[in-house]
# Entry
Amino acid sequence: MRVPRVAYDFADVFKKHGFQCHLVGGAVRDILMGRLHADYDVATDALPTQVVPLFPRVIPTGIKHGTVTVHFHGTTFEVTTFRTDADYSDGRRPDAVVFTPSLEADLARRDFTINAIAFDLVARSMHDPHEGRADIERRIIRAIGDPSARFREDGLRPLRACRFAAQLGFRVEEETRKAIPGALDILAKVSAERVRDELLKILASPVPSEGLLLMKETGILGIVLPELLEGVGMKQGRYHCHDVFTHSLAACDAAPRESLILRLAALLHDVGKPRTLAAAPDGRPTFYGHESVSADMTREILLRLKLPNIVIKDVVHLVTHHMFNYQEEWSDAAVRRLIARVGEPSIDALMALRRADQIGMCPENAAHFPEGLAQFAQRVKEVKDAGRAFTVSKLAVDGSDIIRSLGVAPGPKVGIILKELLQSVLEDPSLNEREKLLQIAAGLLRERLGGP
Ligand code: ATP
Ligand code: MG
# Structure
């Protein structure tokens, strides 16, 4: 085992006080697979109250469940006392955790064999009673014990199986997979926060569609994201090779992995299409207005999944504006108007979403379409570099100028005038000078706004 020095140093503190310290969970898996891992799960026979005084920086993250978080030499350790979980009567959370001095008992309560390997950091030896190492080698997710019973104990585990499959590129072993449909009623009762955390890990996986397809095939998607299923089998127009559902997954795969916002936006950008389906005169399917239906549904879905408001706002914004269709013939003014409409800070994300969308339409489009987008990116850059105004706040006049120089009473009319001035400046940036703008405003007042 290539264990980082810091983990041994951490374990030394336990050793000095006569406690055990085992590396468990994701870090063991990753080290065995030759990967790096950022934070470490550790299991110990020390009670939480005995761990707290050992370190200066301890956060009682889940003290009821026996977990504390320790920051040690720049690394985060989640320390959990050996425990067995008593009675999961409703499948949401164990009713009570019972601490145990036995590592074997602690490993037996864990979900999958690959997650139940312990590396004793004091004795420097491996404990693998459920043959997790063999399953890592075979790239298999297998429940410990009877999968049906384990899934009914905690309804989140089936979703975790999909998460690990996507995250690691593993297969879910047959018996484990077959047990999932029988536990969906329990999954339906699991808290949105726990579901969200697993779903976000699927979206951050190299190929999220691997997890999402498994969710569909096992029935999990019908519980967690039923809206996506409306697009299964729904044919689209001539630029598309896939049905709406497959396209959404392909777009999600194509979105940059490091951006949760883009992965969410790509997955949900067309979620409203099925509800806007109509037929063109020639019989082709149309989805007019789907971007706003998709945006509304996206907001609802992300609220239900308890995502932070700031994430919801960004994703909904991107979904709302995803339909722009850049053409070479666009004037500079058209490019400026689009930037003004979506906001300068969102324009790069919107282009990335569009790119993922286009790659998700047809694999063979990948080579062709993004050329147009690259050209659009260049146009955006030129327009931005020219230092043009895209917002009212960048105009050469402000509200108080309008009030003082033109005698307009403070009120909504001032805002209307500023917005009109911005439209003029987007059309012709040379108009962004104080005298010129005041002149245009005076004209507006006279001709369209009935005076000051
Ligand atoms: P990651 O790399 O994402 O942190 P992980 O395997 O460490 O993956 P965690 O959710 O951090 O996953 O959980 C740590 C360990 O706790 C797991 O490896 C597993 O042994 C155990 N565990 C976590 N959740 C459950 C659960 N719902 N049921 C049983 N055991 C669980
Ligand atoms: Mg972990």
Summary: The CA atoms of residues 299 and 316 lie 6 Å apart. Residues 25-26, 41 surround magnesium ion (ligand 2) (CB under 6 Å).
